[in-house]
Amino acid sequence: MKKESFQDLKPTIWVGKRGVTSVMIDEIRRQLKDRKVIKVRWLRNTEVNPEEVAASAGAVLVEVRGRTLVLTERRGASPGGGSRNI
């Protein structure tokens, strides 16, 4: 997907006043598996660190504009979000 087309992408995840929760991270992972690229938006009164969201979801942060971020699936990611028990 070209960078210009991110503008046409509709947000599929909305972060509310509770902020980013573990359930939301799981939903981001699920949507990335299905869609490969997703857009996340958050409320003005909510603090969100886009780098932390991407790291928690095991995704690549592509773009941040205002209260919107774009994530893509990390290539070569292991199933399970990258956390393994050895």
Task: Give me some keywords for this one.
86 residues; four-stranded mixed beta sheet; disordered C terminus; alpha+beta; globular; 4 strands; single chain; Translation Initiation Factor IF3
User: What fraction of the residues are assigned to beta strands by DSSP?
Assistant: 25-35%
Strands, count: 4
Rg (C-alpha, Å) = 13 Å
Largest beta-sheet characterization: 4 strands, mixed
CATH hierarchy: architecture: 2-Layer Sandwich
CATH topology label: Translation Initiation Factor IF3
Low-confidence stretches: 81-86
Strand and helix order: EHEHEE
Broad CATH class: Alpha Beta
* Strand order of the biggest β-sheet: 1-2-4-3
The average pLDDT value, as a whole number, equals: 86
Shape: globular
